[in-house]
Amino acid sequence: MTHSYDESENQGRGPEEPVVVRDRRRVDPQTGQVRPPGPAHAAPEPEEAPVEHAGPSLGDTIMDDAVSVVSDVEKELAERTADLQRLQAEYANYRKRVERDREAVVIGAKATVVNDLLPLLDDLERAEQHGDLTGAFKAVGEKLVSGLQRAGLESFGAEGEPFDPSVHEAVQHNTSPDVAGPTVTVVMRRGYRFGDRVLRAALVGVTDHEPAAAPSVGGEAPLDGGADEQQQ
């Protein structure tokens, strides 16, 4: 009896691999009975036809529910991020405002203390002008002035400065052809500023420009001089 086996399974095998023999006979040679259909005799399953995926029709959307949920989460995350950034900016502005107010309070307190010491500085200046600021008294005065200057005190009001009505208080007024414009020529009391704040204006005398007298035409002598010569 001829044995039927599948040679396709043995094709491509190496010399060391065992040969597989499958008995595909419908009648069992030992019992003579017809064998029930098994995996070897089962009919081949039909191949599934490829499924054609048609695109969305007009008006349909290709976004599923999962994508829409993610979009909602991202939208809410963006809103919370914007709120956090806005809150952070407001807090930064609040800190700057607090620091600015605190600095203004400190400067105001220093200016109040320095303003109370201005009469003492006037006494020291007058004593120096009269030659009375000597010895230990002079050393103490110099330390006081240098300490106030380091704190931010600045004096102004000197002869030759251009007149500025915002920091100078004019109590005298003269004219002269020697100046080009309103100029401080006399300082009666020095002015002081602390930072950007003017603590006290300077008392000064101001001299304005006066055009020089025009020379006489033709070199003629004044009438008074001619009259005197005639009398002589």
UniProtKB/TrEMBL annotation:
Residues 1-61, 209-232 are annotated as: Disordered. Residues 14-28 have a biased composition (Basic and acidic residues). Residues 70-104 form a coiled coil. Keywords: Chaperone, Coiled coil, Cytoplasm, Stress response. It is found in: Cytoplasm. CDD domains: GrpE. InterPro entries: GrpE, GrpE_CC, GrpE_head. Transmembrane segments: none annotated. It holds the Pfam family GrpE. It comes from the Bacteria. NCBIfam families: PRK14164.1. Participates actively in the response to hyperosmotic and heat shock by preventing the aggregation of stress-denatured proteins, in association with DnaK and GrpE. It is the nucleotide exchange factor for DnaK and may function as a thermosensor. Unfolded proteins bind initially to DnaJ; upon interaction with the DnaJ-bound protein, DnaK hydrolyzes its bound ATP, resulting in the formation of a stable complex. GrpE releases ADP from DnaK; ATP binding to DnaK triggers the release of the substrate protein, thus completing the reaction cycle. Belongs to the GrpE family. Homodimer. HAMAP family: GrpE. This is Protein GrpE.
